[in-house]
Amino acid sequence: MNVRIFSQFETSIFCDAAFVCRTGRLWRGLDKRFKGIDAEQAIYSIPSDAGDIELVNGGPLKWIYTATGVAEGGYVEPAIWITSELNVKENSLVKFFRTSLDELAEEFDVEIVADRKNEADGYNLYLIGLESQVLTAEAHFRTLLELCQASTDGGPKVFVDYFDLDGYSFIPLVVGVDMANMRHLSRTYRTQVRLPPLISHFSSSEGDERRPQILLSSDVHSLVLAAKKAILATVETSRSSIYYHRLENVSPGKLLFIRKYYTSELKRLIIKYQSFIRVTDSYVEFQAPCSTLLNSVIKVFTINILHQIVEIQVTLHDDHSCTDDMIRAIVSDRECGPILAMKLPGTESQFVLVKNHSLLQVDTATCKTGRPKSNEVMFHLSLILRALPQRSLRQLRAIFELHTDYEEFISGKKNGKVTRIMETIPCLIKLEKFPEDDNLFLILTADNFNDFSSTFFMVLNELPAEESFFIPELYHRPVIGAGGSVIQATMKKYNVFVRFSNSFFLPQNDLSHIRYDNVIIRCPYKNVSTILEAKTELNSLARGYGNTQTRILLRFSPGQYRYMLSFKRGAQMIGEIEKNYSVYIMFPFEEPPNDYHLEIRGSDNPAEAARELIKTCFGIERELKLNKPIKPTDDLYNSIVVPFKHVMQIEVTFSKSTVRLTYEQGNSSLPKAIEILTDYLKSLNLRIVSKEVIVDFIVANGKPLM
């Protein structure tokens, strides 16, 4: 039997106005349900079964209305818009529409309009259409605007290139963990990378076979080409090891709820774990570059999303029924917040509410824990039940979907926690897992609202809350203490559980060095406020131990940073050296400044680790002092920096009156490179006044900070 799902929707209606230019697509006559709109044509997408549509026109753009209502039948893709400015003459704008934007609108099935800004010779351009089409077209739209602006008198030069990916699942490999790859490309290659939307696959355009495109732009042609080569190499390396999993038996109501209300959290998980997540109306699928990351992202998805969503089954006595009008009234009540309702054909006395009950993850950015919503859920449920006929309620049932690793955590040893709750309040609590299911289901049943509400709150208090973060592996043993004495005291003090792991051999790439979370703090939700306190104490213990370590400082230039990542598998070698020598290499998260010192900490072997790092990952550096500063022109990159890197395997960096070459000892191309560079400098009326070859990079054997 097909499940009928009722849900709120919100979309935009774009009315015809006196635009300076338009591409002339998607416009049609107004729907009769739009009362109060004074326009002949508009762009909109409203479900055919939507009734009692509410229109609001409170924004600064009076030609855009917000429409809300209730619809049946699954995900309702909204119509949206994005805007950007363009400072050109009107004749240039008209030409731009005819030569570029008309074609873009045709290809992506969107509309583009322009109206005049208050400032002279300036326009606001709006990209309008269904969400999936607008977000897919956005990168192309902004790139075309950049090119148009550059073509005007005095505009900066822009070079653009692009390439196709085999699928959306490879986009996280381009982005990198916590956007690390994007930062590297922006700084080292001076290139802006525009990506397809991470969540375009949630839209109604599923089945669109258009391959995702990555667009790159820079003011230096050779850097665009170099950035493209670097990204393609990273993707090609990563795709040789891909792990995949699919959650098949998530209910359709939960899947729709996730697609509608968990977009931001899904983006965060995709970026944090460099893993692809796709939610459809039938399943959730995951793809990651290693099994460890795959298991981690599935588990965190389950905790941060599935754990938060509860299905509440409301059953009435057989002589009462739940009409469609009743369900629509429940779902349309904005005071209830995000909510869905499901009905099965043939079960007129029963319906299921889908709602998020808690925000269980800890918000480390604001140092606040998630706001509990259990009281809010019960308040809304009480309002719904009051609207039902008197004495019509037969039973309430809550269904929680949980990760199987937490069965004993939630139930207690020998079901002790569950038994105590059932002995306290008249209710039934069951933990079930069927062979075809990935997850565990906790089912709470009660015959009246008061018992249900009390039990619901007690169950929520036992759900797991957790946070993960990074502490250098070198500090794990002292933080744990002899025989676990220190960590046991910490866990007892804050009533939490702490687990340590190592991340030495998780995937790295040639664009960045990644520090993965390797510590997890977990506790029942009733103690969630102690997670931050426990984390603070663990970090304090780690810092205190780190300050007692012997420190080695290494001279570490921007060229050395690039050389390590590009030519020496430096990101991967760091983990191997840290493990083999029991040290912590404080490798920077982005390209360092010229006077940067790389710090290595350890108790026994930091000097040996430093020598091993220099031997296996560092290049020789040749510093050339010039008679006057050198300017970072486009020609310098096109003629020297990029060719030297890709043809001769020599990194060239410069700062003021210094040019630095970083290369492997014995590089046979060095004499020719020096000759070419010398001739190039002469053409700029520059000459080399001194040379220095650096092979000893150890600056100092630092003492402990304490």
TrEMBL record:
This is K Homology domain-containing protein. InterPro entries: KH_dom, KH_dom_type_1_sf. Residues 157-236, 463-543, 548-619 form the K Homology domain. GO terms for molecular function: RNA binding.
